Amino acid sequence: MTAQLIDGKALSQQLRADVKARADQLKAKGIVPGLAVVLVGDNQASQVYVRNKVKSCEECGFHSVLEKYDANMTEAELLARVEALNNDPSIHGILVQLPLPKHIDDHKVIEAISPSKDVDGFHVASAGALMVGEVGFKACTPYGCMKMLESIGMKDLRGKHAVVIGRSNIVGKPMAMMLLAANATVTITHSGTADLAAMTRQADIIVAAVGKLNVLTADMVKPGAVVIDVGMNRNAEGKLCGDVDFDGVKEVAGYITPVPGGVGPMTITMLMVNTLESAERA
Ligand code: GUN
Question: At which positions is NADP(+) bound (predicted)?
Fold first, then answer.
């Protein structure tokens, strides 16, 4: 193995210790950071995710509420809950876990969240703020990836070429904007890209975020490149794997993030950071 690991678990612990210290300072002034997590339906993966989010709140000394609703909750009922949370002064962040049941319009619900409490960074106002460089909440997964780059001394990315694989609203697009804001030259690749390997071979930084096994293999990576794996997949044996062929790519890359223990823990950590910052602004 030539690549050094970027340990998301260890970095998360460091960042969460700082979050807890700042939360303690706020508490001394009578403000307890509060996060509301709303889950509709019984999606198995979502149940695990929301449990972990609530657990992290407890570890950081935050107030949290978990609202669980039946899959047949109506859109109007959910919108009414969001409005109530928008008006609740003990709540600084609102997270509606996705996916929502099919009869509910995700976009409509996210747009109903007050941008001042949009700690997921999914609201159009948050995406727009990122695009124009204004203050707003950054989407947690790409924000965590930026912190991982910072942790290896890559804060200003002037002169670096970053290639993002995937163009989702939650990861690919905001990732590209954050890399650009850090002065990288950015290429976004996707299912319509003619020759993905030709792009990734030019990259100093590669972020793989498509949700497909082995999208990035060793022959596609420039020696010494930094590889960040956002994927969460199961292989044929049921083992948790990213989008990157880890065993092959680790022999070529300079740095690589593992799955599990890489980007995953960072996503929840950045949710804690956003919630704390929301409370600090309030
Ligand atoms: N579903 C999977 N990941 C996420 C996330 O980061 N936020 C929300 N709201 N839903 C998700």
Answer: 166-168
